TrEMBL record:
SUPFAM superfamilies listed in its UniProt record: TPR-like
Species for this entry: Nematostella vectensis
A Pfam family the protein falls into: BRICHOS
Keyword list, A-Z: Disulfide bond, Signal
Name recorded for this polypeptide: BRICHOS domain-containing protein
Length: 532
């Protein structure tokens, strides 16, 4: 507002001395000397015929702050840059001049004599109030010159409000006006950059933008603690009824700093708050959403590797907000799979299954592949003797299995049995082994020998109650042509039945052992045991 005031003063003066500015050069640059209380300054003007734009660089006069105004006659936009506020404001429409050519005709330099300057105090003062509406997200709406001018600052949409030319003086004279009149007058400026009608809001706005700029500088310099404090102060200084853009932008920036400070939950909470305030603003454009989604997936993986389950879940939940707008199905599915894994590890099985079902609907192939992937990761943990963690992944693999995934399901059950056995939970190991046989009945010498060795360990540990069933599982995998292995298993199971005093079953196995391998030297002992 105050920036435009200064520019209009200059234009009023120039137009009052209207002498045609005739030039065929594509770019014209000149300065207007200004004098205020004996101090000299200049206003720079640049007219660019190629881009059909005009740039006014205004110094600080009459208590205002320096800044720049660019008018683009192609796009019919006016951009105001205020370095003090570390912000830019764009509005539709340009000055009274309908084109750059018309502006050139209105600008005259003949009246400016060498060594003389315009006395600012003699110029007509005109006050303009601007209302900020929202943050400009897609800068493609701007010309290249406008984008470059505000490359380091956020740009906000603004529109000019109609105000009286004497508002500033009236505001000073009417301090003792009745409360109702003051309230009525201030309603015209709520949520605006209004210096003359609502001084307090203007000051809070300036403080907020100044602190936000300082916070950004501290962040760039690596002073993260100071940056967080400044972002927090800026959030507290935002005037009431301001557009949501300000809150959302600061929260997103503070989240980045909190992450650098290893305050992971604080960072996630800032993003959550921004999404609650205004999801569309917090998410940004589709390209930005894609970048943010990938960033938070990486952060979720970082938390997963660090064992911070809650923070990982939070990160993947944030990813889902961004990925929905970016419309990247693979990103959404990946986040669901990762979050399901964390829920499962935490013990929230119902939430894990919900995410898995959601993944199946949007990307069934990824969901299927995740079953085998979970087994591979579990195998790595199993090799490191992290049996409990491996067990969770094997169980998770089962959740991803469907009816047409017998091989994966079979492998997962067998891996679960191995984990339980290593954890000395022999009952559950047996149950998992039986489930594997239900899924896929097959002959496997390796599986048969595995259950045979487990039976031996139970025998040595005097765990006889499950011994016969372990050998039964081993026999279900043994091929009939492998007479040596079958006879050993029958002999061992016969002994297991004897330990439980199941004499008839022991005798039956002994007889089968003789039939299978009559020449075996130990077969007579196997037959004699039940009768002894």
């Amino acid at each position: 507002m105050y920036l435009i005031l200064v520019t209009l003063l200059s234009l009023v003066y120039i137009q009052s001395h209207a002498a045609p500015l005739i030039s065929t050069e594509p770019v014209i640059e000149f300065t207007i000397p200004l004098v205020e209380n004996g101090k000299d300054s200049v206003e720079k003007i640049r007219l660019d015929a190629k881009s059909n734009s005009a740039l006014f660089s205004v110094p600080s006069v009459q208590g205002s702050n320096a800044g720049d105004i660019m008018e683009d006659f192609n796009k019919k936009l006016t951009l105001i840059r205020v370095p003090y506020l570390r912000a830019c404001f764009v509005s539709r429409g340009v000055s009274d001049a309908s084109s750059l050519a018309a502006l050139k005709l209105g600008l005259g330099l003949n009246e400016f004599q060498a060594g003389e300057g315009v006395d600012v105090s003699k110029l007509t003062k005109e006050t303009n109030t601007w209302k900020v509406s929202s943050l400009l997200v897609d800068r493609r709406l701007l010309s290249q010159g406008m984008d470059s001018l505000c490359a380091r600052f956020p740009i906000y949409f603004a529109r000019q409000l109609v105000t009286s030319a004497t508002d500033e003086n009236q505001a000073d004279k009417e301090q003792d006006e009745s409360q109702s009149m003051r309230r009525k007058r201030s309603q015209n400026c709520v949520g605006t950059l209004c210096h003359f009608l609502n001084v307090s809001i203007f000051k809070r706005m300036a403080n907020f933008l100044e602190m936000a700029g300082m916070a950004e500088m501290a962040q760039q310099m690596g002073n993260y603690e100071q940056s967080v404090e400044l972002y927090t102060s800026a959030l507290q200084c935002i005037p009431p009824n301001m557009p949501h853009d300000f809150f959302v932008r600061l929260l997103r920036d503070r989240a980045e700093v909190n992450w650098q400070l290893l305050r992971y939950e604080d960072a996630c909470s800032d993003i959550d708050t921004a999404l609650k305030i205004d999801p569309m603003l917090a998410l940004g454009c589709e390209l930005a959403c894609d970048v943010q989604a990938n960033r938070w997936i990486d952060r979720g993986d970082e938390m997963t590797n660090a064992g911070n389950v809650d923070a990982a879940i939070h990160c993947f939940s944030i990813v889902l907000n961004f990925s929905k707008k970016s419309r990247k199905v693979i990103t959404t599915a990946s986040a669901l799979v990762r979050r399901a894994t964390m829920y499962y590890r935490k013990g929230d099985i119902s939430f894990a299954r919900k995410d898995i079902n959601s993944c199946r609907k949007i990307h069934p192939e990824l969901a299927k592949g995740q079953g085998a992937a979970s087994i591979k990761i579990g195998d790595v943990l199993f090799g490191k003797k992290k049996y409990a963690e491996a067990l969770d992944l094997y169980k998770l693999a089962l959740e991803f299995c469907t009816a047409d995934m017998d091989a994966v399901c079979f492998e997962a059950h067998n891996c679960i049995a191995s984990c339980y056995f290593c954890l000395k939970n022999y009952d559950k190991a047996l149950i998992a082994g039986k489930e594997a046989v239900k899924v896929k009945q097959c002959k496997s010498a390796s599986e048969a020998k595995k259950w045979k060795e487990r039976g031996k360990e139970l025998f040595k540990a005097n765990k006889y109650s499950l011994l016969d069933e372990y050998y039964s599982l081993a026999l279900s995998y043994a091929h009939h042509s492998d007479k040596e292995l079958v006879s050993q298993l029958l002999c061992n199971r016969s002994l297991a039945f004897l330990k439980k005093n199941f004499l008839k079953s022991a005798l039956t196995d002994a007889k089968e052992c003789v039939k299978t391998r009559p020449s075996w030297s130990k077969v007579q002992h196997a037959v004699a045991r039940p009768w002894v």
